[in-house]
């Protein structure tokens, strides 16, 4: 499914095949070059924050946040996702440690496993605002907490109209 991938020309793709029953056998295809994403009547953009706190983490009830700027009218957006990679040291008693514009988001995999977790959350587009969109993380553990890893959270938004008609993603 390429519906949330920005339009690209001259892609290079290769397959890496790993066999479950024979872990030492790996097959890697030669690169296929000159591919492009399908032409479609949509513009898909990857938007990220220009103001990440360093470090971007929360523990002991101290929230941490960043903003992602959206220059589209949210009513034009057909679909949106929030992508975030965290080191999950625990959320403590906080039920929903991640929010976007004060809307709490589901993070079922964030169970304090002390591991990296890449999360993709389908968003209700009504959560988005034109301008600043605030992504916030909160943990009340005394020790480890939740750390948002670089490059930080990103919004992927799909709007009506081709990319070539409306400018490129940043």
Helix content: under 10%
Written as H for each helix and E for each strand, in order along the chain, the element string is EEEEEEEEEEEEEEH
In the CATH hierarchy, the third-tier topology is known as Jelly Rolls
Mean pLDDT: 88
Contiguous uncertain segments of 5+ residues: 164-170
Biggest sheet, in brief? 6 strands, antiparallel
CATH architectural group: Sandwich
User: How many domain units?
Assistant: 1
Number of strands: 14
Count of DSSP H/I helices = 1
Structural class: mainly beta
Level-1 CATH class name: Mainly Beta
Percentage beta strand:
35-45%
- Rough outline: flat
Distance between the termini: 22 Å
Tell me the radius of gyration: 19 Å
General description of the model:
The chain is an all-beta fold. It is built from one helix and 14 strands, in the order E-E-E-E-E-E-E-E-E-E-E-E-E-E-H. It has one domain (42-166): Sandwich (Jelly Rolls), CATH 2.60.120. The chain is 2% helix and 44% strand. Strands 5, 6, 8, 11, 13 and 14 form a six-stranded antiparallel beta sheet that branches. It has a four-stranded antiparallel beta sheet with strand order 7-12-9-10, with no helix packed on it.
Would you kindly provide a brief summary of this structure?
With about 170 residues, the protein is an all-beta fold. About 0% of the residues lie in helices and about 45% in strands.
């Amino acid at each position: 499914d390429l519906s949330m991938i920005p339009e690209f020309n001259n892609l290079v793709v290769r397959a890496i095949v790993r066999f479950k029953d024979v872990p030492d056998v790996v097959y890697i295809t030669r690169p296929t070059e000159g591919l492009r994403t399908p032409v479609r009547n949509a513009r898909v953009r990857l938007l990220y924050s220009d103001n990440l706190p360093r470090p971007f983490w929360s523990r002991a009830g101290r929230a941490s946040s960043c903003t992602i700027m959206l220059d589209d009218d949210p009513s034009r957006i057909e679909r949106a996702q929030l992508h975030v990679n965290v080191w999950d040291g625990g959320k403590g008693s906080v039920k929903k440690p991640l929010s976007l514009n004060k809307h709490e988001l589901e993070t079922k995999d964030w169970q304090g496993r002390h591991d990296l977790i890449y999360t993709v959350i389908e968003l209700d587009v009504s959560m988005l605002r034109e301008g600043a969109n605030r992504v916030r993380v909160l943990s009340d553990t005394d020790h480890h907490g939740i750390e948002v890893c670089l490059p930080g959270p990103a919004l992927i938004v799909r709007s009506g109209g081709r990319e070539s008609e409306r400018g490129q993603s940043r």
